[in-house]
Amino acid sequence: MKPVEKQRMAWALTGSGHYLRECIDIFNKLDDVDLFLSKAAAEILQQYGYKHKIGKVYQDKTASSVPVELFYQRTYHTVVIAPTTSNTVAKMVCGISDNLVTNIFAQAGKCRVPSIVFACDTEEEIESEAPRENMVKIYPRRIDLENTAKLKLFEQTTVVEDMQQLDNSIQARLACLKASSF
Fold first, then answer.
1. pLDDT for 18
2. Residue 133's pLDDT is what?
3. Which label site among 29, 40, 52, 78 has the fewest CB atoms less than 10 Å from its CB?
4. Of 82, 91, 89, 74, whose CA–CA distance to 27 is shortest?
5. 8-180 has CATH 3.40.50.620 classification
6. Omega into 83 within 30° of 0, i.e. cis?
7. Which three-class secondary structure string do you get for the chain?
8. Minimal CA–CA distance to 72: which of 103, 44, 48, 46?
């Protein structure tokens, strides 16, 4: 299949509110981004009352995750999954592709499209924003931390643990793409 003229970034949201506002701020400033929402992400955006400026949005409404065909057409140069719940990380580590987000992660890997994952559960104690701007302490389970460590071993996958690493990884990827286009 012939590659598209100008590739885009695919950004996927899961059902996490952890640094969700900051993730939205990052992708709202980027060009050529398509947004992929899990069912939980669509709910959480509404629950938190956050808005985004992305025009092309794919929601998890089909059993076969139809939008993954865009990876076969080479539409995307990078996948960013941020923020990423422990549930999604666990599914990705186990190779389970049962929703839109886990399907695009799997297809990105199969099509050798690099992924950047901002995993929410990276420390033993985390302060996170809950709905209505309340801050809460959460304590990821050992299995959550182990799954994040396992995901770091996946090929073509960069796992980041904070917003600075996320922004740096995205900017480094974009700079690499720009340099290779000359």
1. 85
2. 66
3. 29
4. 82
5. no
6. yes
7. CCCCCCCEEEEEECCCCCCHHHHHHHHHCCCCEEEEECHHHHHHHHHHCCCCCCCCEEECCCCCCHHHHHHHCCCEEEEEEEEECHHHHHHHHHCCCCCHHHHHHHHHHHCCCCEEEEECCCCCCEEEEEHHHEEEEECCCHHHHHHHHHHCCCCCEEEECCHHHHHHHHHHHHHHHHHHCC
8. 103
Domain ranges of the chain: 8-180
Residue 89 and residue 121 in contact, taking contact as beta carbons nearer than 8 Å: yes
Looking up tokens 């923020």, which residue turns up? 83
Using CA atoms, how far apart are residues 42 and 40, in angstroms rounded to an integer?
A: 5
Tell me the mean pLDDT in the region 156-172.
96
Per residue in 5-63, pLDDT (tens digit) is 689 999 999 998 888 999 999 999 999 999 999 999 999 898 888 888 888 999 988 77
Which pLDDT tens digit goes with each residue over 57-86? 999 887 777 888 999 999 999 999 999 999
Phi–psi pair at 125, nearest 5 degrees = -140, 130
Interval 94-122: pLDDT, tens: 999 999 999 999 999 999 999 999 998 88
